[in-house]
Amino acid sequence: MDVRTELNHRERATLRAVAEGHAEISRSCEPDLFVDGLACCDQHTAHRLAHLGLVAPARGGRWGERVPARLTEAGAVALEGAFPPLAAA
User: Which of 50, 19, 16 is nearest to 33 (CA)?
Assistant: First the structure.
């Protein structure tokens, strides 16, 4: 799946927190992120990153359980800035 998209500063910071092992994610269809044990203040960002396939649970778990979050391969590429900005339509 091609996830070409621009990421804002908050999304990049969230991806960095996940990459550095500071994040947990809830097992649900609308996953919530927790950074250093605290709920992420921008759940829209958390949901967007999960739905774009940039972050994912690092392991299975029960519905609603918090598990370590991991950066996906697409997330790592996005964090490296490999996606050029989209041209205006």
Answer: 50
